[in-house]
Amino acid sequence: MNRVRSIYPDLPEQVTVIDCTLRDGEQAPGVWFTREEKLALARLLSGAGVDVLDAGFPASSEADSEALQEMRRMRLDARIGATARPVTQDVVAAEKARADEVFLFMPTSDFRITQTLGITREEAGAMFRHGAEEVVGRGMTLNLVFEDATRADPWLLVQMTDDLRQHVPITRVIVADTVGCAHPRSMEILVRQMIEALGDDVELCTHCHNDFGFAAANTLAGVAAGARAITCTVNGIGERAGNADLAETVAALTHLYDVAHRVDPTALPRISAEVARMSGIHTSPTKPVTGSNVYRHESGVHVDGMLKDPKSYEFLPAAWVGEKTRYVLGKHSGTALIKHILKSAGIDADSAWVRELLLEVKSAAEGRDKANHQRAYQLRTAFESINLAGLDPELLLEKAVPRKLNAAASSVR
User: Fold this and answer.
1) Is residue 253 scored above 80 in pLDDT?
2) Where are the domains of the chain?
3) What confidence tens digit (pLDDT) does each residue in 102-142 have?
4) Is the pTM of this model over 0.90?
5) Pick from 242, 240, 249: which is nearest to 219 by CA?
């Protein structure tokens, strides 16, 4: 592992892991968690060693507020965070929810400031300062979330941070790749620029979206540049294409980057399965780290190598996540697996018999009916089109149109 630190000399020894499944994950279209599900996931994530939970947006949901309050009563090891805009009502809602920390977010690119909010940079800075002072004044830890930071002027981000920390203590600055347009090199440069300008007093963190499939890579690039905190979601669920995946990111930190974290890897498969069940977003068998095929092998060449030494084709050991290596009999099997299965059953077989059995296995595998493939595809497609589609706009119109008609009739009278 010394080699990776010679490549990336700014790697921290350890990172803080912030999980956003309960907030950003729930913002995936069509996804919602019940109060009981949120509490169960909070307990699982905290028990797994996640440091901070971005647990909801209390100002937008009374249910989130109640869930955060209950999480505090549960005395979890993880700190409980609430997302808020830099306005008094949002910060008050976070305080009412008994949040330990606030993720105070504000657009920082000129495009978002001028086109979306319709204000100037100066007005945006004043709003951010007002919200930050509200957070600290109410006794909560302040995380500045620079929304759309990867489309912003880096020096504006530095100036805003410098201005704010003259007035309030800032624990973290989170640079958000809100539209997923960064690539690893640009994220590395951005994080390094900010750390060089701000020093070590503020913990730099990344929040990456996966629109181009770079969320985990960009998160790791930020760490390589010296970021001491990361944000992730379980199974990478979130807005649009989602976020950096928790399991994939911490696995890479451990096995590729030599960076420590508190997450227990053996807890990851269960958490992944629970989020898939509760969210309705089901993961692929080939999903890295927690997918059902990650530690299963069929190809004859691969199985032969694995039987001789598991490191042949599993750089990421199955045992790291509490799983076992498994072998699959199928069309691509070879004689090594046939011999292994027979030997395990105490059956001696000569080469001719092994080859004969292998031909029977291949024939049986290729002759299987694929009707179940079609049924499974149809069921999944139907589920997604109904259960992840959100509510029918007609429901809104059914409520709105009569009210408008009644209002019009009242005005006539």
Assistant:
1) yes
2) 2-278, 296-366, 371-412
3) 999 999 999 999 988 899 999 999 999 999 999 999 999 99
4) yes
5) 249
Q: What is the mean pLDDT of residues 263-292?
A: 97
pLDDT category of residue 407 using cuts at 50, 70 and 90? low
Q: What is the C-alpha to C-alpha distance for residues 153 and 255, in angstroms, rounded to an integer?
A: 34
> Left, alpha or beta for 281 (phi > 0: left; psi -120 to 50: alpha)?
beta
DSSP string, 241-298: T-B-BHHHHHHHHHHTS--B----GGGHHHHHHHHHHHHS-PPPTT-TTTSTTTTEE-
DSSP 201-254: SSEEEEEEB-TTS-HHHHHHHHHHTT--EEEEBGGG--STT-B-BHHHHHHHHH
**DSSP assignment string, 127-181:** HHHHHHHHHHHTT-EEEEEEETGGGS-HHHHHHHHHHHHTTS---EEEEEETTS-
Closest CA to 222 of 177, 164, 255: 177
- Percent of the chain past pLDDT 70, that is, above it, reads 97
Report the sign of the C-alpha dihedral through residues 390, 393, 394, 399, in that order. Answer: positive
Pick the CATH number of 2-278 from 2.170.130.10, 3.20.20.70, 3.10.25.10, 3.60.20.40: 3.20.20.70
What's the confidence (pLDDT) of residue 393? 87
Q: What average pLDDT does this structure show over 36-56?
A: 98
Mean pLDDT of the chain: 95
As a whole number of angstroms, the distance between CA 17 and CA 76 comes to 15
Q: What is the pLDDT of residues 319-358, one digit of tens each?
A: 999 999 999 999 999 999 999 999 999 999 999 999 999 9
φ and ψ of 103, to 5 deg? -95, 95
Task: Count the Cβ atoms, other than its own, within 10 Å of residue 62.
Answer: 12
Q: How far apart are CA 312 and CA 126, in angstroms?
A: 57
Rounded Cα distance between 407 and 47, Å, is: 53
Please answer whether residues 174 and 144 qualify as being in contact, where contact means their C-beta atoms are separated by less than 8 angstroms: yes
Residues 6+ apart with CB under 8 A from 99: 55, 58, 68, 80, 81, 82, 140
CA-CA distance, 395 to 406, in Å (whole number)?
18
With cut-offs at 50, 70 and 90, classify the pLDDT of residue 226: very high
**Amino acid identity of 302?**
H
